[in-house]
Amino acid sequence: MRKIVILLALPILLLISTASAAAPTMITGTFTFTSNQLITTRTAGPNILVTSMITLALTGGLSGSIDQTSTALTTAQGLTVDVGQTRLAFTGTVAGASGTLLFASTANTAGGNFHGHFTILSGTGGLANLRGEGTFSVTSQYGGTYTLQVNSI
User: I need a surface site. Which of 28, 45, 85, 132 has the fewest CB within 10 A?
Assistant: First the structure.
């Protein structure tokens, strides 16, 4: 009889522990291009391959800067695509906690403006346990917007 009571109580205990888990938090903001240094330009037939060092200033839920080296391919048809997975190094604060984050991102110009997806790979300091993923969109020559869903802050 005791085993039956424990077995019947187990699903309830699992529901309680799941319900108490923190809900994901949505972070939004803007970014501005502060530096874009051309490293190399190569052509392959009608295609152009460009590698640049880019620095972004972020405001909103993420406050700080991102440094990245990005390689993009522009086809003869005008489509631009990140080559491989770009790594972005963020230094700053999220909800008052400071540290660094390493993101991986992919992006392209399909459908118009440059947009993409990014994922938090790791963090340090007060951001060591932060995990999540989001999207970004370049809305002008000066910058754009981002949305990031994280585990909890």
Answer: 45
Q: Which residues, at least 6 apart from 140, have a Cβ–Cβ distance to it below 8 Å?
A: none
Q: If you search the block for the tokens 């460009």, which residue do you land on? A: 50
Total residues belonging to the chain: 153
Phi, psi (rounded to 5 degrees) for 16: -65, -45
What pLDDT, in 10s, does the model give residues 134-152? 999 999 999 999 999 999 7
- Nearest to residue 106, comparing CAs of 120, 119, 123, 91? 119
